[in-house]
Design brief:
By secondary structure, the chain is of the alpha/beta class. It has two domains: 206 residues, no CATH class; 133 residues, P-loop containing nucleotide triphosphate hydrolases (Rossmann fold). It is built from 14 helices and six strands. Helix 1 runs parallel beside helix 8, helix 10 runs antiparallel to helix 11 and helix 10 packs parallel to helix 13. The two termini are 34 Å apart. 30% of the residues are buried. One of its GO terms (biological process) is tRNA wobble uridine modification. This is 50S ribosome-binding GTPase. GO terms for molecular function: GTP binding.
Length: 364
């Protein structure tokens, strides 16, 4: 997996680039037949290396989104009007914010009369954003609350902008501006400049790592729907336990079959073996081996004359079946996360970046 590294010693965008390169190289070798599942990693790599930062404005109709962008840009480049929903599709212009290059994107309103097509276009643009300017007025509506929840779910950073400050009282939260009078526009421009210089690289990296993590989970889920290997190993152990003479041999068979099953499962999902979380799983497996051994004791046989069956066989079969079910359940969260646990795995990097950010915050 390569040499060790410290997150703080490398630029965050370089670390993210290494992550995407690692994932693409891994899947090209191990999952060529599932390329449709991991193709989005190429798009993420392209976005990571874009020179321009992408800022998208979001909000309901007639909230002053286009007027806000015009005020930031310093020129009436986005159309505005009194009619409902002047902006009918996303439109992007290039903006030079001091030494930073920014693509400003205007979007249709969240409650457009044209229906879901325009809203879908809006969210497609938002999902490509490094930062969202979430435009509202004096209070959040139900539609705006739902949109903010969706931004949180997608882990897209946003700034709450209260427009028309000359007409409405300011909200407790948010940046109050007026595109008509110019109130708050210089402060907002300065805030964006600061964000671009200090926070934009990490925001883009975190966003792309979260999306790469979702790609891995989708691939793992697709592989999981095809995985039926546990049942063949379960059948083999059931048959072997019937034929073997005692509990010691049953346990030896269980050790061989479970390790072989776990290794085979890792190969099927093309994730590293042994498991990083194998320590926790091994504790359960050892207890399960003990249960298999105890269930083979003749002293545990009861009621065989009454029921006409060998209750040792039934009990041991139940223990083996239960154990495999538990192993599958405990393996699934690891396997179906995809290839995330290597040195440059998305989840591992996210954890380290979050820890680094927490340490910086605490020391600051």
């Amino acid at each position: 997996m390569g040499r060790s590294f410290a997150v703080s010693s490398l630029p965050v965008l370089d670390i993210t680039a290494k992550c995407l390169e690692e994932l693409l190289a891994w899947h090209q070798v191990h999952h060529p037949q599932w390329s449709a599942q991991w193709q989005p990693l190429y798009e993420l790599r392209d976005r990571l290396h874009q020179r321009a930062w992408h800022i998208v404005v979001l909000g309901q109709v007639s909230r002053g989104k286009s007027a806000l962008l015009n005020a930031l840009y310093g020129e009436a480049i986005f159309p505005v009007g009194a009619i409902h929903g002047t902006t009918q599709w996303p439109r992007t212009v290039r903006w030079h914010c001091q030494d930073q290059i920014v693509d400003l994107t205007d979007t249709p309103g969240l409650d457009e009369v044209a229906g879901s097509d325009r809203e879908s276009m809006t969210w497609r643009a938002v999902e490509m954003a490094d930062l969202v300017l979430f435009v509202t007025q004096d209070s959040l509506t139900r539609v705006e609350d739902e949109a903010r929840d969706r931004l949180d779910t997608l882990r897209i950073p946003y700034k709450l902008i209260c427009t028309k400050a000359d007409l409405y009282p300011p909200m407790a939260k948010g940046i109050a501006v007026s595109s008509t009078t110019g109130q708050g526009i210089p402060e907002l421009r300065q805030l964006l400049q600061q964000w671009l210089q200090q926070e934009a690289p990490q925001a883009r990296a975190l966003r792309i790592l979260h999306q790469a993590s979702q790609v891995e989970q989708n691939l793992g889920a697709a592989l999981g729907r095809q995985d039926t290997s546990a049942w063949s190993w379960l059948t083999a152990q059931m048959v072997g336990s019937l034929l073997l003479p005692g509990g010691f041999f049953d346990v030896v068979l269980a050790i061989i079959s479970t390790l072989a099953y776990i290794r085979k499962a890792c190969q099927a999902y093309a994730v590293p073996f042994p498991l990083p979380a194998f320590g926790g799983l091994s504790q359960f497996v050892l207890l399960w081996y003990a249960a298999i051994y105890l269930s083979s004791w003749q002293g545990l046989t009861f009621g065989s004359e009454l029921w006409g069956v060998n209750t040792n066989v039934v009990l041991q079969g139940g223990v083996i079946f239960w154990g495999y079910q538990q192993i599958r359940r405990r393996l699934a969260p690891y396997l179906q996360q995809g290839y995330q646990w290597g040195q440059y795995g998305p989840q591992r990097l996210l954890q380290q970046l979050s820890q680094t950010r927490a340490n910086v915050t605490a020391s600051g």
